[in-house]
Write a structure and sequence with these properties.
This protein is an alpha+beta fold and about 450 residues long. The protein has three domains: about 160 residues, 3-Layer(aba) Sandwich (Rossmann fold), CATH 3.40.50.261; about 90 residues, Dna Ligase, domain 1 (2-Layer Sandwich); about 130 residues, D-amino Acid Aminotransferase, Chain A, domain 1, CATH 3.30.470.20. About 35% of the residues lie in helices and about 20% in strands. The strands form five sheets. Strands 3, 8, 9, 10, 11, 12 and 13 form a seven-stranded antiparallel β-sheet that branches. It has a four-stranded antiparallel β-sheet with strand order 4-7-5-6. Strands 15-17-18-19 form a four-stranded parallel β-sheet, with helices on both faces. A hairpin with a 4-residue loop joins strand 8 and strand 9. Helix 3 packs across helix 5, helix 7 crosses helix 8 and helix 11 packs across helix 15. It starts with 13 loop residues before the first strand and ends with a helix.
Length: about 450
């Protein structure tokens, strides 16, 4: 294939923001979009809802508008009255609130699942719409997501929007504060279109973010008067939460300044939306965070895999993959794409999976109705090829392989593994052996074409 026609590899399609890949710039929901941070190579992250993130900020001393959560449209009118009770009417004599779907996906506003409402009746109407329709955005795919919970928050007038986040800079191996005077939009878009608008301030490895650093950033962002101390307080609180809660990202977007008023001549600095992801490896010391996990927002197959100690991420292709090692799995997906195929999943069985775990891995792959072929690519160092082979045979006995199966085995106990497959050939009529990764990718891509 000519170089100009080759698919761009996963690692080359990511757009750096904090010194490393954050989100790819290509089409949404492709295999490169989903496999950005993988449990065996980077930090697995647990997500929480916006209402939970707002609670964490509030407990840390960050000012956020009043809000309540509801799970039925009948509760919306009362919620509107509760959150607007202490609000002063705007210039038009109205009190405003915002109704927001609580899902683990972006693009809510464009999808119509964030609505500004002016009356209890409008709040009820917005809630009825959101709870009776699936939210479809660029991050959900055409199937969309079911909405079961809403956030009703007090509306605020906005003079200016900012972006604040703390994450890890892979280049310097330090935590970094990322800030921008262009808030309310995706930071990746700002990084691409106006990179000079982004301010980066590294955190000291032991001392964290220092007050003088926060003041420096506040002035760079253009805060003035009493806004400066308010912004500094928020930055220091965000940094403290990031470290205390073992976050992989702590983000406020947007951080806003309200218009000047008699009570606040310089305006108020408020956080009106937030996002936190947490390091799964540290959850054992955060019982409160464990209670925030929402399994209904996760892919059921990914949860099944997690229970078996497997690293699985569902994708949107039609070639199932079972590989040992995250790096080899990424290379396998790139090679499949090079040969014109599309991976249906990322699945790393690691180096110590049992026969039961391998068999369950095949069940998970074959439960995906989009899978038209399966590629097994094993380079056994720690992983025993015989265990993989027996897992294939077990899956064939319990489930049956009706789709093409291409297997490439090399490494520890490979001859025993090949013998197991050879003896079970009657159970595996669709099996094809491959001599190397390139050969395997060509065969499976051709089989599903």
């Amino acid at each position: 294939m000519p170089v100009a026609e080759r698919p761009v590899p996963v690692a080359e399609r990511r757009m750096p923001v904090a010194g490393g890949p954050v989100r790819p710039s290509g089409p949404p929901l492709s295999y490169a979009d989903r496999v950005l941070v993988h449990p065996r190579t980077e930090t697995p992250a647990m997500k929480i809802h916006e209402y939970q993130a707002r609670d964490i900020l509030s407990q840390a001393g960050v000012p956020v508008p009043a809000a309540v959560t509801i799970d039925s449209f009948e509760q919306a009118a009362g919620a509107f009255k509760d959150v607007t009770r202490d609000l002063a009417p705007n210039g038009a004599g109205q009190k405003l609130a915002v109704v927001k779907a609580q899902v683990h996906a972006g693009g809510r506003g464009k999808a119509g699942f964030v609505k500004l409402v002016k009356t209890p009746e409008e709040a009820s109407e917005a809630a009825r719409f959101m709870l009776s329709n699936r939210m479809v955005s660029v991050q959900t795919g055409p199937q969309g997501l079911e909405v079961t919970r809403l956030l009703v928050a007090a509306g605020v007038d906005i003079e200016k929007e900012y972006y604040l986040a703390i994450t890890t800079d892979r280049k310097t191996r330090r935590h970094v504060l990322i800030a921008s005077s262009e808030g309310g939009v995706e930071i990746e878009k700002v990084a691409e279109e106006n990179p000079q608008a982004i301010v980066r301030e590294p955190l000291h490895p032991l001392l964290g973010l220092q007050p003088f650093q926060a003041r420096k950033v506040a002035f760079e962002l253009g805060f003035t008067g009493k806004q400066v101390n308010q912004a500094v307080k928020i930055m220091l609180a965000l940094a403290r939460v990031f470290l205390e809660k073992d976050c992989t990202i702590a983000e406020i977007n947007p951080l806003i300044v309200t218009p000047a008023s008699d009570d606040h001549p310089d305006g108020q600095v408020l956080a009106i939306d937030a996002k936190f992801n947490f390091d799964d490896n540290a959850l054992f010391r955060h019982k409160d965070l464990q209670g925030m996990f929402d399994p209904t927002e996760e892919n059921p197959s990914e949860l099944r895999a997690q229970r078996m100690g497997l690293s699985y991420i569902a994708l949107d292709g039609n070639i199932g993959c079972l590989v040992n090692g995250a790096g080899l799995a990424m290379a396998t997906m790139d090679t499949i794409a090079l040969e014109g195929g599309t991976p249906a999943n990322f699945l790393d069985v690691g180096g110590s999976a049992s026969e039961e775990a391998v068999t369950e891995a095949f069940r998970i792959i074959l439960d995906d109705k989009a899978v038209k072929g399966v590629l097994v690519n094993i380079f056994g160092g720690i992983m025993d090829c015989a265990v993989i082979a027996q897992g294939i045979v077990n899956a064939a006995s319990e489930i049956g392989f009706t789709v093409p199966l291409v297997v490439r085995l090399e490494g520890t106990n490979v001859q025993a593994g090949r013998k197991i497959l050879e003896n079970a050939s009657a159970k595996l009529p669709t099996l094809q052996a491959a001599k190397d990764l390139g050969d395997a990718a060509r065969k499976v891509a051709a089989a599903v074409a």
